[in-house]
Amino acid sequence: RIIDALATLAFDYPRRAAYFTDELENFLVMARQEGFDPFQPVGSFAVAMGYGQFMPSSYLKYAVDFDGDGRRNLWDKEDAIGSVAHYFQQHGWKTGEPVATRVSSASPGGLETGFRTSYPVGRLASMGFRAPQSLSDEQRVSLLQLDAAGGYEYWYGFNNFQTITKYNKSTYYAMTVHQLAQALRSRHGGRYSATPAATAASAG
Q1: C-alpha dihedral sign at 88, 91, 94, 99
Q2: What global pTM score does this model have?
């Protein structure tokens, strides 16, 4: 149960007691607002809740009632989708902008790779990286290196890629989210064109 995990982490885990004490308070506020028994919900051992694996503080900030039933319920698929979309929107997602693009293979030399990097496209182009679309030399991107089945792949990560990494700080996680979304869109003939930001906006 979430209440058990929170109590244990708040009172028997000194290294992060202050953080989890705040989360315990947030959870009790959340239970009062949503009108549920705080002894009922279950989650991970680290207190992550529902489909979106939100902490109580994130629930209070970003959860939305996407299905219109009057409750914000992260264990409901529709509310979870709307809440994650709202999280993206609040962390900088830009509607219609790209997420990532694969670039021609080249050696990064001594350059660091990963979502935390930021390089001008012109500098990367001078090292042999080429994107399939036209980008200004001054535009800054992250240089991503993925260990794929056929060897390393290199990608440029844009602002929206950075937004996904604010949800989970892993290049591979963010790329999986992006590629899964592209596969779903392709399977449905591109009909599902709504972005997380647009979805969240419609959630109110």
Answers
A1: negative
A2: 0.83
Round to whole Å and give the CA distance between 83 and 81. 5
Between CA 42 and CA 53, with CA 48 as vertex, the angle to 5 degrees is 105
Q: Which residues of 142-179 are buried (b: 16+ CB within 10 A; e: fewer)?
A: bbbbeeeeeeeebbbbbebbbbbbebeeebeebbebbe
pLDDT digits (tens, 9 = 90+) for 156-172: 999 999 999 999 999 99
pLDDT digits (tens, 9 = 90+) for 69-125: 999 999 999 999 999 999 999 999 998 999 999 999 778 888 999 999 999 999 999
Q: 61-87 in b/e burial notation, b at 16+ Cβ within 10 A? A: ebbbbbbeeeebbbebebbbbbbbbbb
Query: First-to-last CA distance in the chain?
Result: 30
The C-alpha torsion from 203 through 184 and 96 to 147, rounded to 10°, is: 120
Q: How many helices (H) and strands (E) does the chain have?
A: 8, 4
Q: Are 144 and 167 in contact (CB under 8 A)?
A: no
